[in-house]
């Protein structure tokens, strides 16, 4: 256990500055009555804030979920503005639908890289991981069974030398 002493300026009675000695202790044992986010998680049955990271193709989504009313903020825009295609909107909402948690969390996400489809997949994985972190005991089995906690590792196959594309060979002429 380490002890440090520092002098901190304290306001005097008539505007004069005096110094009071402040002692701080660094300990590994939490003080009685002090709570951490881990000790409070799931304590009252309320939805808990959580974070998750999702990747798909070249897209990366950093997601935070906060108990709220179901608002989405993706790179400062709403879900409808960021993903105008209904298919992508449904894809990112699937983890909430499976857990029947529609409208219980606000989602704040930063997405970078990739295209629209890859970003939607990355966001879905990030949301699923955040929901899993929020309540592991209740959510994990359902999310795992639905396949939302698995990263889709498919990516674009590279072009090979001597071929036009990854697998397409140049036209063959017999004579």
Structure at a glance:
This protein is of the alpha+beta class and 175 residues long. It contains five helices and six strands. It is 30% helix and 27% strand.
Textual characterization of the structure:
- The structure is a single chain.
- The chain is an alpha+beta fold.
- It has a domain at about 45-145: 2-Layer Sandwich (Ribosomal Protein S5, domain 2), CATH 3.30.230.10.
- Helix content is about 30%, strand content about 25%.
- It contains 5 helices and 6 strands; from the N terminus they run E-E-H-E-E-E-H-H-E-H-H.
- It has helices at about 35-40, 80, 85-100, 115-135, 135-145; strands at about 1-10, 15-25, 50-55, 60-65, 70-75, 105-110.
- The strands form 2 sheets. The chain has a 4-stranded mixed β-sheet with strand order 3-4-6-5.
- Helix 3 (about 85-100) runs parallel beside helix 4 (about 115-135).
- The termini are far apart.
